[in-house]
Each structure stands twice: as structure tokens, then as C-alpha cells.
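worker-3 :: picked S-norcoclaurine synthase 1-like
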Amino acid sequence: MEVAENGGPKLKLLGRSLPVDNVQALAASGDPGEIPQRYIRPEVMSDVDSAGADDIPIVDLGRLADLVSSAGEAAKLKMVLPELKLVHELINHGVAEEVMQSMKVDIEEFFQQPLEEKEAVAQPPGSIEGYGQAFVVSEDQKLDWGDMYFLGTRPVTFRNMGLWATHPPTFRSTLDKYSQELKKVTDRLLGAMAKNLGMQPEKFLDLFKNGVQSVRMNYYPPCPHHADKVLGLSPHSDAVGLTLLLQVNQVQGLQIRRNGRDCNQTDRRGFHSQRR
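worker-3 :: C-alpha cells ->
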């Protein structure tokens, strides 16, 4: 496949991040002392409203393509468009189970490597691409209890292959194949959104023709102390056109804030594919 060695300028515009301690190493150190104060988050809320997530829809992408049965699915999608809300789950998306499973296995194997192996693809100075943390801009900033691996994936000329891991040995081919499948899903979703907005799908997709796809792989190690006072990922709104998530394991974690309250969302965590 054709690749670029230094990545495209668009990803560099996303920001930079200062180097910080590896959270996975902190969690595995066995130190009985307190965790560093930079990870203690006083704003963590414990009163999670689990009922608030019930009305977030499950959308069947396969049925959206069926003229006979698509009306109900289109209505669900149309419901989330005005406020750009979340789709709880996307089913029948067409991505083969073996492709998703291979991606899950390779992500887990990457994060289980010794630290020196992961640091071989560490973020370069002034960039968020690579292994590390995102958007750390000061020495006294509060930090997330998690490590991440962030890569530009599509178009292929956008890739910085120097930051693509070679261990596990299947990682590059797996991510390449998975990113192809994600683009297909993205185009189908954007086409369905266009119809709901009363636009021609071709013209709507044309708005994204210069867009890029990137992935963010997150690892949240168990916190040995004050687990109720740390955050794996700070509250945020994704500054992208579309975000797809793949849960790598069965650990519950994602929370959604709606109408000023945190709603517990138990089945989405791990792998992001973002389309700008």
C-alpha cells in the first residue's frame, strides 16, 4: 500500500501533548502509596443516572438499505440528527466478525507489551499522534487515568508509518483492513443521514471528500487507589464529523452526559474511528 512517512499536516493541526508518566506502568508498580495528585479528579460525580440512556436508539444499518423495512430505522437516525446525539448501537453494519476480532486481539496485544516496545512508537515532540496521552499542555494539568495510541489511517497517504507498530506482527495489516471496513460503514451512514436531511447522498458525501480518518486506542488500567476519584477519559465532545466505537472487552465504562446529567452507558469502550 502507498504510504507517507511523515503524516499529513491535518493531523498535526489537532494539537500537541507533553510527555507524562505511563499510567499502565504506574498501575502495575505495586507501590502501596497514593497515586499522584495529578490524577485525582475532584469533579468526578458518583450519582450516575442509568435510566437516562434507555432512549438512545439502536440503528440497524442493514435495514437502512432495504426500501421495504428502512422507514423505522431511518426514523431512529432522524431522531438523533437535530441535536447530534448518540446512537446506542449500530448493528448489521457489514464488518466481518473476524475483522473486528483481529483488531481487538491486536489492540490488547499491543498494550500488553513491555513499555519499551510501546515507546518505540511514542508521540514525537509537538504531536498527539503515536503512543502517549492527548492534549497535555502544562506541567500542572490534571491527567486522565489511561494511555492511548493515536494514528492517522485514511487516506493511506495520510499515514505516518514510522508510528505504526510492528508488534504484534499482524498489527499493520489488521488496522489497514479494519480502516477500509470503517470507511465503508462511514459512507453508508453519511448517505443515510443525507436522505434524512433531504439531501442527495452524493452531494452530502462530497462535503467529506477531503476528510481524514484517524483511530484512537485507549487503555484504562485498574487504579489501585482512589479508583472512584480518577477518570479514564475527561469529559469532551468529539470535534469530528462522525465517531465510531468498538468495545475491546467487557469492562463497562462509557458515560454520556445529557441534559446536564451523566447517563451510564455500559457497552461502548475502546477503539475510535474518526472521520473529519
